[in-house]
Amino acid sequence: MPDRSELHQENLRKIFYPSSIAVVGATKTKGTVPYDILENILKADIDAAVYPVSPREKHIAGVRAYKYVLDIDDQVDLAIIVFPSAVAHMALEQCGQKGIKSVIIISAGFKEIGEKGLEREKQILEIARKYDMSFIGPNCLGVINTDPAIRLNASFARQMPEEGSIGFLSQSGALCTAVLDYARAKHIGFSKFISFGNKADISEVDLMYYLMRDEKTKVILMYLEEVTDGRALMKAAKDIVSQSGKPVLILKSGRTMEGASAAASHTGSLAGSDEICDAAFEQAGIIRCDNIEEMFNNAIAFAYQPPPETNKVAIITNAGGPGVLTTDAAIREGLQLARFSEETTRIFKRYLPSTANIKNPVDVIGDARADRYDAALTGSMKDPSVAGVFVILTPQSMTNIEEIAEEVVKVARESVKPLYTSFMGEADVAGGVDILLRNKIPHYILPESMCKSFASVYRFHHHIMNLNAGPVIMNEYDRTLASGIISGHLSNQKTFLAEDEAGEILKIYGLPVLPGGLAASQTQAGEIAEKIGYPVVLKVMSDDLTHKSDIGGVRLDLKSSEDVREAYNSLKMAIKGKIPESKIRGIWVTPMISGDVEEIIIGIKRDPSFGPVIMFGLGGIFVEILKDISLKVAPLSEQDAEDMIRRIKGFPILSGVRGRVPRDIESIKNCLFRIAQLAVEHPEIKELDINPLMVRPNGQGSVIADAKIMF
User: Fold this and answer.
1) Superfamily of domain 307-466
2) For the stretch 179-196, what's the b/e string if a residue is b when 16 or more beta carbons lie within 10 angstroms of its beta carbon?
3) Distance between CA 394 and CA 397 in Å, rounded?
């Protein structure tokens, strides 16, 4: 028996390409969801048999109606349930008895309304599993397939969108209608358009895999309100990018931190849910968009034009100011202005007026007509150093906007290089913009958006598609021993491990833990210090103190037994004076780290969707002030670790800026790999801080100066 994910892939085929459809719960009442869905299916001129199912009607919209699904004599590939939620389970049961495997449940009134709706959702899921059915929904707009081979509009959207190569998935049905209207105005077409609603059965991940294999889809877009299974989403995106080369663009709502609970560790407080989502998406090769406009700005760039071979662009404009603005935006996005060859320069001198600027950006002057744009465009496209061309137009009184647009379309069709446009304005340029959009030439209201989209396409094809390296796995440690220690602490109902106990676990995983001992008396503290060697550090160990330095629970640089005895007493008195109810387990004695070191922080946070997340940043007391950190989801590849280290603004401090000694980057990476593996193999660990990790000069390693673990 296939698992649910395999079953969904089989059944999704009949959702999008059914030979026969039953609209279960259809009515004659125009302007209602049941009627509109049936009408949309019929209006789209679908190549499939359509069966309305209605207990009270004999004909709907000129088509014979059936009282029950079971009354239909023929085989039914797809059932679309539009009955109210209170009876939807009965309709689904009959679909199962009929042998229908593919279902869309439009009806609302499920988990989105609370506990009663959640019970209904569980009920329909049980029925689906009983009959090996798959369903999209409930609480969704429906699905659309623009493929001329079927032309299915199984939704209550107002109109059928244009055919295209963009697959769109949305958790929100209301957003779908706005997106369809936006896309229609810009002549943006879709291959598949799917509202998946509550995703009670078929998830966004299932749909992503379907679109990965769909020959009509080149680009996958998605709107998400919640990430239920972040690791599955990441895997799907990585598979799509690596196996099909299709970009995945996601608009994820919920960027604010409202409602986030306070965390005991630095990592927990710094690694917010949205920052984790950003990091996870990037790690998986997902392009995260901030709004609908940005999503479609990127989508049309991917769908309409070939990818650039380099980041070198040519800018053609009829106004100097917009040319400068575009130049600034291009450089800001990591692009470069191409240097024209001597041959290209000769062409420009021959066909452009003497007042034109023939360097990049090329200014064809305000009175330019289509012939000048043609000369500048053709010359730029043929130049071997140019990877793509930006065409800017401002409406002057002598500008033949539509003719220039037609010229742009002609040149774009004859070239294998990408061409993007920005006809600036609105009313005057509308005719030209319409020509560009109808001919699938990317157009942007602002040149800055044009540069950003070009850069997204370039980064995807030259960087993101290469992010498929496997994780680094460490083997030389005793996982069973670590599990036993953790189980012991959990059985004692411990929720927090200070440095001495956390160090036991870290040491098993090969992390550079300092030697030390827990003293229960002045004498014992002195003996441990003598054994370790001076100078030493004394730290209060208590399950009640997560940030011991904040309440004076540390004494540094103790150089004699007398210093140790005095520090021991003062620590005890200080803690009892400030937090009298605290239970002190003892005083930890450990070597004082001195010399040429830099402090960094490494941590773990357990995210409910993405699982273990690793944090890296500059350490010490300033980490929460500067917030100079990077995040990745464990496990980590070699490239992940490298990116984490290089991404922080403080990386020059580690690499050796302005004569500073470079730090041992390899030892940092080694610690990151081991911490990531610890996080993956021990889900009991909710949070962990190594703060600071003292990093010595290159080749001299690093050492953990403090650590804590939260369960």
Assistant:
1) Succinyl-CoA synthetase domains (3.40.50.261)
2) bbeebeebbbbbbbbbbb
3) 10
Distance CA 525, CA 569 (A): 11
* Peptide bond between residue 692 and the one before it cis (omega within 30 degrees of 0): yes
Confidence of residue 260 (pLDDT cuts 50, 70, 90): very low
In the chain, the percentage of residues whose pLDDT exceeds 90 is: 83
Element (H, E) at 630: strand 629-633
Angle CA 369–437–185, to nearest 5: 130
List, in sequence order, every residue forming a beta bridge with 631; answer none if it has no partner. Answer: 615
CB atoms under 10 Å from CB of 454, counted, come to 29
| pLDDT score for 263 | 47
Superfamily of domain 4-253 in the CATH hierarchy: NAD(P)-binding Rossmann-like Domain (3.40.50.720)
Who contacts 228 (Cβ-Cβ below 8 Å, separation ≥6)?
199, 203, 609
Query: Residue type at 593?
Result: I
Under the banding of pLDDT at 50, 70 and 90, the label for residue 259 is very low
pLDDT 10s digits, 227-236: 989 999 999 9
Q: What is the pTM of this model?
A: 0.91
The string of pLDDT tens digits covering residues 525-543 is 999 999 999 999 999 888 7
Note the pLDDT of residue 268: 54
Banded pLDDT at 550 (limits 50, 70, 90): low
Spatial separation of the C-alpha atoms in residues 40 and 68, rounded to whole Å: 21
341-360 CB burial, b ≥16 within 10 A, e <16: eeebeebbeebbeeebebeb
CATH number for region 598-710:
3.30.470.20
Say whether 307-466 and 4-253 share the same fold: yes
Task: Tokens for 148, please give them.
Answer: 């001329």
Q: What pLDDT score was predicted for residue 271?
A: 62
Looking at every residue in the chain, the average pLDDT score rounds to 92
pLDDT in tens, 156-205: 998 899 999 999 999 998 899 999 999 999 999 999 999 999 999 999 99
Q: Specify the residue for token string 């992940």.
A: 640
Residue from 338, 340, 362, 339 nearest 352 by CA: 362
CATH no. for 515-592: 3.30.1490.20
Helix 85-98 to helix 115-130 angle, to the nearest 10 degrees?
0
Question: Edge-to-edge strand order for the sheet containing 134-136?
Answer: 49-53, 20-24, 78-81, 102-105, 134-136
Q: 91 and 83 in contact (C-beta within 8 Å)?
A: yes
Closest CA to 442 of 559, 304, 338, 317: 304
Q: Name the residue ranges covered by the structural domains of the chain.
A: 4-253, 307-466, 515-592, 598-710
The answer to whether residues 315 and 326 touch, using CB atoms and an 8 Å cutoff, is yes
pLDDT, mean of residues 122-140: 97
Q: What is the DSSP letter of 581?
A: T
pLDDT of res. 223: 95
72-119: pLDDT as tens digits: 999 999 999 999 999 999 999 999 999 999 999 999 999 999 999 999
- Say how far apart CA 418 and CA 395 lie, in whole Å: 23
- Single out the residue of 672, 579, 690 nearest to residue 634, CA to CA: 672
Handedness of CA 688, 692, 697, 701 (dihedral sign): negative
The amino acid occupying position 36 is D
What is the spatial distance between Cα 438 and Cα 430, in angstroms, rounded to a whole number? 12
- End-to-end CA separation in angstroms for the chain: 39
